[in-house]
């Protein structure tokens, strides 16, 4: 059983804290936002995003480095705009993400395109807008990309994603750097793939990349992957193919429930020391963080609809569900859940133990299990660490409209996405 967070502070989330009996994001009361905009409601702190970004920028101070925000973590336009305005590049994985990030004001030259299944149409779109680099994940993809580039009379800049066969020690669904994962080109095939890429008329080899998984909380897997990638850089360059940039992917974890991932700047100091030791310190470095830039910048507000005591379990039924917050159902993920306006006793050991569940018709529709809470119907709860992989993975299951979103900037609360109506969920369909 997990007790709820105390008002003394929410670990890892300095911009989300109680002031008196009110949970605040920066200077804005969450109870006010819930009343004004309804629930479920995602609320993000701009300052939290920028301070997470600053930790990476500190880690790379004095280096040639490009931070490409992995926008799959949260692809809401105003969130992308925060990072674009701060000079970030972006890691995209679909034509849709590319269109979004350009709409948010990104510089296409700072956009990279990852993913194992890029279509010809997506390649064409990306080449035509002039993205910085394709992270290619198979030899077959090299051939198709070269063909598409030649047909447009263009050259595609490519980096090959190498699968270093390193265990990121994370949930198996979000581990990507092991031999059994679909991602990247096997380490032992990489040199052959580079030679092939260098021989193709539509391609220009510019870099190497890897990404070993997500929610990584240890430094060692990064260091091991770095060693494997740098070994390859030596081999590829000895074959006469220069590598201009080295991209270490994303994956740094956040504190959901007492997790202690390394700080971004400390991690990068260690990785850069390795690069320096091999004489690669002056190369362009790229990284693709997603979760660590936005995860702890956001909360999801949800209202308690009903309390349902039971013989084996007490249920606290809320108005957010697995369509809004899919991580618990998909990965048994833990998110802290705290009251927006604590009742007397709600932050002590008092209270009842509940499973906090949504209205969707699946037993897997839970948001938190065995949580001790002092709540009543009508109370608003905040699901913490909801800035990453929540709204971007939300669905319309059970014909539920997606939640609204707010970006807080100091004392200002901007409505950045309106609540989707039930009508919006079927507006594109056609009766026959
Ligand atoms: C290629 C690639 N880069 C970057 C990321 C971002 O990962 P994270 O959000 O864990 O930083 C992912 C997702 O795991 C990814 O697949
Ligand atoms: N969706 C996953 C992360 C996937 C990372 C993308 N490769 C999560 O919520 O933890």
UniProtKB/TrEMBL annotation:
Matches recorded under InterPro entries: Ala_racemase/Decarboxylase_C, DAP_deCOOHase_LysA, De-COase2_C, De-COase2_N, Orn/DAP/Arg_de-COase, PLP-binding_barrel
Amino-acid positions noted as binding pyridoxal 5'-phosphate in the UniProt annotation, renumbered to this chain: 251, 288-291, 389
GO biological process: lysine biosynthetic process via diaminopimelate
Catalytic residues of the enzyme: 361
Superkingdom assignment: Bacteria
Domain (Orn/DAP/Arg decarboxylase 2 C-terminal): residue spans on this chain: 45-387
Purpose: Specifically catalyzes the decarboxylation of meso-diaminopimelate (meso-DAP) to L-lysine.
HAMAP family, per the entry: LysA
Name of the protein in its database record: Diaminopimelate decarboxylase
Taxonomic source organism: Limnohabitans parvus II-B4
């Amino acid at each position: 059983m997990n007790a709820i967070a105390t008002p003394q502070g929410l670990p890892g989330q300095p911009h989300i804290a109680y002031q008196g009996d009110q949970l605040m994001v920066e200077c804005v009361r969450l109870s006010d936002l819930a009343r004004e905009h309804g629930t479920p409601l995602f609320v993000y702190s701009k300052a939290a995003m920028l301070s997470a970004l600053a930790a990476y920028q500190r880690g790379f101070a004095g280096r040639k480095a490009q931070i490409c925000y992995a926008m799959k973590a949260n692809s809401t336009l105003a969130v992308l705009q925060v990072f674009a305005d701060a000079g970030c590049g972006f890691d995209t994985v679909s034509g849709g993400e590319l269109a979004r990030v350009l709409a948010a004001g990104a510089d296409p030259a700072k956009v990279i395109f990852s993913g194992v299944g890029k279509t010809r149409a997506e390649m064409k779109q990306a080449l035509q807008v002039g993205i910085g680099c394709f992270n290619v994940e198979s030899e077959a993809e090299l051939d198709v990309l070269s063909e598409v580039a030649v047909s447009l009379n263009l050259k595609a800049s490519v980096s090959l994603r190498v699968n270093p066969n390193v265990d990121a020690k994370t949930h198996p669904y979000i581990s990507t750097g092991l031999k059994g994962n679909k991602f990247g080109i096997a380490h032992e095939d990489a040199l052959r793939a580079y030679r092939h890429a260098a021989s193709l008329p539509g391609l220009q080899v510019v870099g190497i990349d890897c990404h070993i998984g997500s929610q990584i909380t240890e430094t060692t897997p990064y260091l091991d992957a770095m060693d494997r990638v740098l070994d390859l850089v030596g081999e590829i360059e000895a074959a006469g193919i220069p590598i201009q940039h080295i991209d270490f992917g994303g994956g740094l974890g956040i504190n959901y429930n007492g997790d202690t991932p390394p700080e971004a700047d400390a991690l990068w100091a260690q990785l850069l020391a390795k690069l320096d030791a091999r004489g690669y310190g002056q190369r362009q470095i790229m990284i693709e963080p997603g979760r660590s830039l936005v995860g702890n910048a956001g909360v999801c507000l949800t209202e308690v609809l009903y309390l349902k005591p039971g013989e084996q379990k007490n249920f606290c039924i809320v108005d957010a569900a697995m369509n809004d917050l899919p991580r618990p159902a998909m990965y048994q993920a833990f998110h802290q859940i705290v009251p927006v306006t604590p009742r007397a006793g709600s932050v002590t050991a008092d209270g009842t133990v509940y499973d906090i569940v949504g209205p969707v018709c699946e037993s897997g529709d839970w948001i938190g299990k065995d949580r001790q809470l002092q709540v009543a119907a009508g109370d608003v709860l905040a699901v913490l660490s909801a800035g990453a992989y929540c709204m971007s993975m939300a669905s319309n299951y059970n014909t539920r409209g997606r939640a609204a979103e707010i970006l807080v900037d100091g004392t200002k609360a901007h409505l950045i996405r309106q609540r989707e109506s039930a009508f919006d969920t079927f507006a594109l369909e056609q009766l026959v």
